Amino acid sequence: MPLRQTRGALLVDVGGVLLLPNAELLTPVIARHGGVDTEADFLRAHYAAHNAAWPANGEPCDYYDLLPGFAGVREDRRGAAADDYRAVSAERNMWHAPDPASKEALAAFVADGVRIAIVSQADGTIAQMLTEARMCQEGDGPGVRVDAVLDSAIVGYDKPDPRFFLHALEAVGAEPTQAVHVGDTVPADVRGAQAAGILAVHYDPYGDCDDPTDHEHVKTLADICAYLPEST
């Protein structure tokens, strides 16, 4: 029986890469405080605030406090906007909107023989969220079939603990040198993958990273293709 042709392994973060903040629900929250009023502008503000909250260098800040400023809310209304945004977000996990372009890229990687492990800092529900979003799942289902879906609350290791990333490699039968990890948070995703000896790529759609020369970057999930090894 011929050996399966593979292009190494891809470890993929969920929030901000596969599942996005639900802009349809969250944009009106910001708009009523005088901020951006389109979903595209909201997502642009989100990534700027996220990168500022979790910088490559310096101390982390509160994402919810930062978001209104990046979203164009007047300074005197930012506190109220942050409180409102935080309250709405607490009603349920708002990071549940699937990114169609990322799903298409994920399917293409699977078709090309890339072993895929989903590696999420989560609360035990990430597999259900991905299935409900029709993004991906282990085995048959409504989304892309991937090799493993790993939730930190179930595995027992949180990012950036390198053991979480090494556990993902074990799940797909790959060595660190055969793998690439992509995620949108430098302290958790990039630093964790680097500590595990895995090539770390920052998912940074708008070039918001405060230290762009420190590690590799992509603007779309499809761009990861350039970092994957050739078929073996």
From TrEMBL:
It comes from the Bacteria. GO terms for molecular function: hydrolase activity. Keywords: Hydrolase. This is Hydrolase of the HAD superfamily. It comes from Actinopolymorpha pittospori.
